[in-house]
């Protein structure tokens, strides 16, 4: 899939998210499994069953947080309230998946692996690896803003829509993006891995207290556990 088409899909998703936020709602469970394509290849957000009003302050249930770990805002994992910026964090993960055609992480992992990933997200600033030599700098910059550890620095859904619209209408940016098409496709084709059906199963994430020494495990989780998306 060409980068121009991927930008169109992402703008569709950001536009849907903007509509959700304009109704003073937060999705809280935004992930690529909730993104559907219609017959015209227009992407949209499905399954709003876990959406909550943006003034709801209680987030952590007695038994944990319902969601898929890689998409959950570190602020929420640390016990803070869901905000619209939490959805933006999730959107940043989707940006990575759509660009590289891979799932960011499999949910079908042992409890100890998931605990390590939770600690990395909360304390070590974990995010998917970005091969910057094959990634457009403007795209890298936007992803990193969505993942910012400071939620107030993340863009709004409206701002993201405007950025994608600007890119789609700027011939110089489109030309720059086109240079990366072959690089990204080559990078993805050289890393064939199976798709995991368990990836998109939301589950209760129990908040783990304390901070263990996980430095030796950093290279085990993330880079070797990606899965190809059917894009």
TrEMBL record:
Species this chain originates from: Gigaspora rosea
Family matches, as SUPFAM superfamilies: Protein kinase-like (PK-like)
The protein, known as: Kinase-like domain-containing protein
The entry's keywords: ATP-binding, Kinase, Nucleotide-binding, Transferase
Molecular function terms, GO-annotated: ATP binding; protein serine/threonine kinase activity
Residue ranges constituting the Protein kinase domain according to the UniProt record: 1-168
InterPro entries assigned to the protein according to its UniProt record, in alphabetical order: Kinase-like_dom_sf (IPR011009), Prot_kinase_dom (IPR000719), Ser-Thr/Tyr_kinase_cat_dom (IPR001245), Ser/Thr_Kinases-Pseudokinases (IPR051681)
PROSITE patterns per the UniProt record, alphabetical: PROTEIN_KINASE_DOM
Superkingdom of origin organism: Eukaryota
């Amino acid at each position: 899939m060409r980068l121009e088409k991927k930008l169109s899909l992402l703008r569709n998703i950001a536009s849907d998210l903007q509509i959700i936020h304009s109704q003073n709602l937060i999705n809280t469970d935004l992930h690529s499994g909730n993104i559907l394509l219609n017959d015209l290849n227009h992407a949209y957000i499905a399954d709003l069953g876990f959406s909550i009003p943006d003034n709801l302050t209680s987030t952590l249930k007695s038994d944990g947080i319902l969601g898929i770990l890689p998409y959950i805002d570190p602020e929420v994992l640390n016990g803070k309230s869901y905000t619209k910026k939490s959805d933006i964090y999730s959107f940043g993960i989707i940006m990575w998946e759509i660009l590289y055609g891979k799932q960011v992480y499999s949910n079908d992992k042992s409890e100890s692996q998931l605990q390590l990933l939770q600690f990395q997200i909360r304390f070590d600033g974990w995010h998917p690896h970005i091969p910057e030599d094959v990634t457009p700098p403007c795209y890298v910059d936007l992803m990193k803003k969505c993942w910012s550890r400071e939620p107030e620095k993340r863009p709004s859904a409206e701002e993201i829509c405007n950025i994608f619209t600007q890119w789609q209408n700027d011939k110089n940016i489109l030309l720059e993006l086109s240079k990366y098409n072959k690089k990204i496709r080559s990078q993805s084709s050289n890393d064939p891995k199976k798709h995991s059906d368990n990836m998109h199963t939301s589950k209760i994430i129990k908040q783990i207290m304390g901070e263990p020494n996980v430095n030796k495990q950093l290279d085990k989780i993330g880079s070797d556990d990606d899965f190809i998306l059917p894009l």
